[in-house]
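Dear colleague,

Thank you for sharing your sequence with our group. We've completed the structure prediction you requested, and as agreed, I am returning the results in plain text so they can be pasted directly into your records. Please verify that the sequence below matches your submission; if there's any discrepancy, let me know and we will rerun it promptly.
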Amino acid sequence: MKTSIYLLTVLCSLCMITSCVDEDEFADTPRGNFEALWKILDEHYCFFDYKKEMHGVDWNDVYARYSVQMDDRMSEAQVFEVLCNMLAELRDGHVNIYASFDQGRYWKWHEDYPSNVSDTLLRKYLGTDYKIASGMKYRKLDDNIGYIRYSSFSNGVGDGNLDDVMFALATCNGLIIDIRGNGGGMLTTAEKMAARFTDKELLVGYMQHKTGPGHNELSKMEEQKLKPSSGIRWHKPVVVLTNREVYSAANEFVKYMKCCPLVTVVGDKTGGGAGLPFSSQLPNGWSVRFSACPMYDKNKQCTEFGIEPDYKVDLDDDDFRQGKDTIIEFARKLINNNGK
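Please find the predicted C-alpha cells below.
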C-alpha cells in the first residue's frame, strides 16, 4: 500500500486513539497506577521485540522486579521515581511520564556522548546579520556556500518561507543544513523541508501501527513516500550536519535526506527516536507518552537507535581554540571539492 508520510501519521494516530487504555480500570493508588502504567505499555508500546533483541528487555521480568517495590504507603515522589525507573528499562527517549512536579525522561541517547556543537562557534559563523524565516536562520558564508541553522522542527514552516530561503541562496555553490541539537517536532515540517531536494517521488521508508494488544501485533509495513515540492527545489550539493541530539522528526529528516540526490550527512550518529509517540493517562492524572508506531528506513531497518553519517566528524579542540567548527569546515571542503 503506497501512501504519503502525512496520511500514515494521521492513520496511526486514529488507530491508537481507538485503543486507549481505560484509566478507570485501576484504582488511584500507588499499586493501581503502577498496574495501569505497565498495562498501557504492555498493550500499546511498539518496540518490545526490538528492545528484547537489542538489550534483552523482558517486560514481564520488568513487572516482576518493579512490582515488589510498590507499597500503598509510598509518597507521590516515591511512586514517580519507581515508575520512571521502570520506563527507563526501555531506553526510549519517546517514553515519558509527566507529573505536575517533574518529567520522567530517558536522555542517555545523547547524554553519554559529546555534543559536537557549540553555541559560541555558531554565533561566529552566523554573525549578527543573518536572516530568519520561521525556525530557520540562514546566510551566505564567505566562500559562497549557503548555511541554514535549523535547531527545532517544533514550529511549522510554510512553503513561502522555504521558497524565500531557496531563492536567497540560489547563487550559492552548495548548501549546509545544520540540524545539530534538533530534538524533533513536527513530522510534516521534516517532510516539507526534505521535499525541496528531490525532483521525483522517493521511497524513504516504512511504517507500521499496532493492531492488537500483543507485543508483535503490528500491521504490515506500509511505504513512506516523499513527493517533490511544487515550490523552488535545490539542485546543488547539500551537506546535512548531525549529532547525537538529532532525534524524532529530525531523525526522520535525516532518513529522508539520505534518499535524496547530492546529499551527504556529516557529523555524529543521530540519536534515533523512530517510534511515532502517543499519549495516555494514569488514574492519578499523570500523562504518559510512548512509542506507538515503528518507522524504518528504505531498507526496512529500524532507525530507533540512530542513523550513521556518511562521514563521522567530531569537533576538534584545537579547531575550537582557533574559532573553527570542525564539522562545518569539513562540510565546506566537501562542497568546494565537489564531494571529494
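Summary note from our side: The radius of gyration is 22 Å.

Kind regards,
the structure core
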